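Office hours follow-up: a student asked to see two folded examples consecutively, so here they are.
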Amino acid sequence: MQKVAVYIDGSNLVSNLQQRGWPAFIDLNYLAGKLAKGDKLVHLLYTFSAPHPNVPEDIRLDQQRYHDILRTIPDISLGEGWRSPPSYDEKAVDVKLAINLVIMSRNNDYDVAYLITGDSDLAPAVDMVRQIGKEVVFVYFDDRYMPKEKQRFSYRLEQAANRKISFKKKWARPI
């Protein structure tokens, strides 16, 4: 039995789910269990920041409610970033994910890491984790049928990871 860690870039996950019309606020423990497939889930990290101030009020409130729910679930570690004016881009979210991914691999806390993101900035961390001897599985959203401007597939992450698997709609069980 392998030790499994699941790393989720929350903004990437939610926006991909919303683009496809799938439930956006999902049960992360259910998702992690589907990825672990009977192996021992040892860590689940969800990174996020506050909603962008330009997001409509109802969507912002839904996102805040989801984050509040996640804060009450003991099996989920949260890596919270912030928004930096004037553009209100996310800050520290990917860095927190990368640091956690590398440190836990160095500590031998997991054998396999499932990484849900589309951000190629994480490729150097994935390279380092593989050098340490751990497996990284890139969980991607199939963009074949999306308009080019909405596609988020990272070819650099595909190259860095040991393997890739496509996110399945059935994993998006609403919370």
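And the second, which I mentioned at the end of office hours:
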Amino acid sequence: MRRFAHFLIVPVLAGLAIPAAPAAAEAMDSLAITEAAAALAPNRYLWTDRQAEGAVSVLISIPDQRAYVFRGATLVAASAVSTGTDDRPTPTGRFTILQKKAFHRSNLYDDAPMPYMQRLTWDGVALHAGRNPGFPASHGCIRLPTAFAKKLFDITQLGATVEVTDMAYVSGMDAPVSDEGEVARANAAAGDVLASR
């Protein structure tokens, strides 16, 4: 076990949990999470139980092969990921979650399972649980450790922001900003579609 400033990192299931820290230590917490995330092995993640507020957003760093999860401006989780290969790269840019399905199968790749799928584009790019070897290995999707994918699936809403970048993450970088109005409209529209079925 390793100690960082005001809290202790301990193993939990397939990831790590970080107990809550005082608000005054938030900047140190972000730095400690970032440093611990840099050492994550494939299929490992960090998840804090800090009571941060605000919309959930996700930053995917392709060079880091990491996902960073924010509540408002507070970094609350990080995970190893596997993005697209050079032949089938993961697109960079700012996306919103367009669709969520806990049990989904690929329309493009041999009915492959995509648990906890969160669609970012209508042409086949999504966040989902899958093989996570520690390097780019997907057809363009962002594969997450299964336990992390489930936790993320449970806290996100349609319309939430996911930013994919070709830059390395540095502690203190701004969180991707979710437009709460866009999130509300996306969820209302999804409710209308489900009600009309």
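Two things to take away from it. Residues 180-195 form the longest helix (16 residues). Residues 38 and 63 are 11 Å apart (CA to CA).
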